Amino acid sequence: MRAREATLPDAEQIHGLIAAYSGDGTLLPRSLAEICENVRDFVVLEHDGHIIGCGALHLYGLHLAEIRSITVDPNRQRGGGGKLLVKALLAQAKKHKVTCVCLFTRIPDFFARMGFTVAAHQDLPDKIHKDCHKCPRLYYCDEVAMVKGTVPSFAILPPPKNWLKIQG
Ligand SMILES: CC(C)(COP(=O)(O)OP(=O)(O)OC[C@H]1O[C@@H](n2cnc3c(N)ncnc32)[C@H](O)[C@@H]1OP(=O)(O)O)[C@@H](O)C(=O)NCCC(=O)NCCS
Questions:
Q1: Nearest to 77 by CA among 48, 97, 53
Q2: Torsion over CA of 131, 24, 145 and 66, rounded to 10 degrees?
Q3: Is the dihedral of CA 50, 101, 62, 17 positive or negative?
Q4: Does residue 78 have its Cβ closer than 6 Å to ligand 1?
Q5: 162 pLDDT higher than 70
């Protein structure tokens, strides 16, 4: 089993892996077009020539990147694949000299094993600006924000139009 950078021919399998967990809200849905457009963000997990997992690293800037869309085929879980994906994504962040990697999750124990610690949602305004403000669960989010590295002191994305409403 190995993790490698994804290429366009992997896009359909990545789409299938994510779709298996987006129906119940475990993962954010990603369209095939969106995956193709952002395929350079992805790493895939390969076993015997088959793709059995994937994960993405979204770059906000030197101050922040986010692990997203991370999943392993349900029949292949608990075999070390998830850990390999996280390590590969952290290596990508290191290559880009990013100082903080964040994620939002409902399984904080999994990521805590890899050195992530719990953060406040407000500490990650870029994530809020990008995704949360348009999420139906904005005011009752059940995901834990986690970080590895130095929590950023600024945001690069402009505040959304309803920013004051969110803060209030
Ligand atoms: C989360 C997920 C990617 C983990 O993949 P995996 O291949 O099962 O993980 P690994 O086998 O590499 O596990 C690494 C370690 O974490 C532990 N672990 C795995 N899943 C865990 C969980 N849900 N909660 C706590 N610990 C977990 C393993 O026991 C292992 O511990 P060890 O290092 O002491 O042996 C996989 O369960 C998955 O695809 N889940 C559905 C999608 C999802 O929830 N993605 C995360 C969204 S933020």
A1: 53
A2: -60
A3: positive
A4: yes
A5: no
> Which residue in 168, 162, 151 sits closest to 64, CA to CA?
151
Residue 108 Cα, ligand 1 centroid: separation in angstroms?
10
For a pocket test of ligand 1, which of 21, 42, 43, 107 has the largest count of ligand atoms closer than 8 A to its C-beta? 107
Q: What are the start-end ranges of the H helices in the chain? A: 11-22, 32-37, 81-95, 108-112, 125-130, 163-167
Q: What is the DSSP string of 129-140?
A: HHTGGG-TTGGG
Kindly report whether the global pTM for this prediction surpasses the value 0.70.
yes
Domain locations in the chain as residue ranges: 2-151
Superfamily for domain range 2-151: Gcn5-related N-acetyltransferase (GNAT) (3.40.630.30)
The pLDDT of residue 12 is above 50? yes
Mean pLDDT of the chain: 92
- Ligand 1 neighbourhood includes 21 CB (under 6 angstroms): yes
Residue nearest to atom 35 of ligand 1 (CA): 80
